[in-house]
């Protein structure tokens, strides 16, 4: 399986491309925003595509040619304003979904926020509510397609070393989870067709990742 990783230069994205390249039955194509970001992925033996998510659907679809699945891990980041949140976390996600349709790719995994419910938008502080709203509507757009989607809602992300153990279910108590473990969860979700059409929250826990994903 060849996987286009959108937002590959992000912290989850880098872990994900590394894990995919180390796997026996997957290979990664890293979608990055700048050519100077390519060397990290080329050293892993991964193909790269230089595309900005603010470009059009056709450009993103061209980057997806020849792949079997897409993982959307991109984000505008905490230092940008609401404008970039809308352009990347919402419009960039929707354009990626539409690009998958154009390219004839059925499998798409979306990395979302922990809670993207309408209640979460209303409860979020003003500085965070645009992000939650963007993720909410991107998730809803994806769920209304006929794509083989999985939506992953990670808890509070950390840069701790992954433990390989998580708790994953439609609803879990809010807690932390290492980005490295989230990347492993994505790999397991790609390998497990039972995750198609499902969304789940994931935090650190006591189950091995493959077991946790299988039981969803």
Automatic annotation (TrEMBL):
Domain NAD(P)-binding: 7-192
Pfam families cross-referenced by the UniProt entry: NAD_binding_10
InterPro entries hit by this protein: NAD(P)-bd_dom (IPR016040), NAD(P)-bd_dom_sf (IPR036291)
Organism expressing this protein natively: Halobacillus naozhouensis
UniProt-listed CDD domains: SDR_a5 (cd05243)
Name listed for the protein in its UniProt record: SDR family oxidoreductase
